[in-house]
Amino acid sequence: MRSGVSTAAGLLAGFALDRIFGDPRRWHPVAGFGMLAASLEAMTYADRRRAGIVHELVLVGATVGLGLAVRRGGALPVTLATWTVLGGRSLERTGQVMARRLESGDVAGARELLPSLCGRDPAVLDADGLARAALESIAENTSDAAVAPLLWGAVAGVPGLLGYRAVNTLDAMIGYRNERYRRFGWAAARVDDIANLLPARITGLLTAAVSSSVGGRPREVVRIWRRDARRHPSPNAGVVESSAAGALGIRLGGRTDYRHGIEQRPELGDGPPPSVADLRRAVRLSKMVQYAALASAVTLAVGLRRDTNKRPGGIGGSRTRRRPGALG
Question: What residues does 177 pair with on adjacent strands?
């Protein structure tokens, strides 16, 4: 099977497995990677950027190397890698459970669930604050857990899938600006920013494209994105959160309580603050963006292969004609 077609088939099959089963509850490979990274940190940690760069290179390099070792297996390794790195279905399920608990008035239960979505302090949040925290996390993780892995898989196959997830996981573990990780986690945060630079903007475009499914308008999404994204301290989260705010007709940002302190985030969007009802709409928006990302990734995987075949000297082509009987 030609590599572009096998990659596309693997992405489709892996996405289907994620939709059916979600993340494994036990023995998840990403959790195993996190345990390995934490163990290695005990040996590599120092309050210096250089130590963090070594930590990043060792873990991401080993993961990409694993992907290179298995990439010639056709569609099967792409399928398994895609299922391993995707988290879109579990993200939706968590958002739906959060909405149910908030709708039933179970604020305590919603607070217990919030750490599975983000690192904010749930103890200080009321129902609307929990809804906003969950919604912003769903918007950002739609890009990180679904769109970005699919696009990296389309471009680079298994190494792209596994390498991206390693980069994103390390950023979630050490990419903080607190006292311990300000220098050691610098490389993890910067590499993650680079890896998500294009996927975040594609997420914004896809959000605009499917915004009518939640009552939004593509032109309004683009307007809010262009006006507000630059206000956010993250070059990528600002894009996806402002796009979601534009699609849902709400206003995100404001006071944000983390366990390490309080941040005053810039406001994104023109509407009212999000309510519990908006959280369900955000879950539906995330689902539509994921399907649009799958279609884009499959098209890209096949298109890249076709383009390679057409290039002079590419696979299936030749720059020169051999003479009859010539060596080689």
Answer: none
* Chain-centroid distance, C-alpha 48: 27
Measuring CA to CA, which residue among 16, 14, 308, 13 is closest to residue 155? 308
Q: Which candidate, 90, 125, 89, places its Cα nearest to that of 110?
A: 125
Q: What Rg, from alpha-carbon coordinates, does the chain have? A: 21
Report the chain's terminal Cα–Cα distance, integer Å.
25
Looking up tokens 């998840």, which residue turns up? 28
pLDDT digits (tens, 9 = 90+) for 77-123: 999 999 999 999 999 999 999 999 999 999 999 999 998 888 788 88
Cα separation, 13 vs 316, in Å, equals 27
Q: Where are the domains of the chain?
A: 3-308
Report which of 167, 141, 180, 140 is spatially closest to residue 260, judged by C-alpha positions.
180
The pTM assigned to this predicted structure is: 0.89
Give me the half-sphere count of Cα atoms (radius 13 Å) on the Cβ side of residue 130: 29
Residue (of 223, 265, 264) closest to 245 by Cα position = 223
Task: Report the share of the chain in percent with pLDDT over 70.
Answer: 90
Distance CA 271, CA 268 (A): 9
Q: How remote is the C-alpha of 7 from its chain's centroid?
A: 19
Q: Is the pLDDT of residue 149 over 70?
A: yes
Residue from 229, 223, 222 nearest 266 by CA: 229
Name the residue type at position 6. S
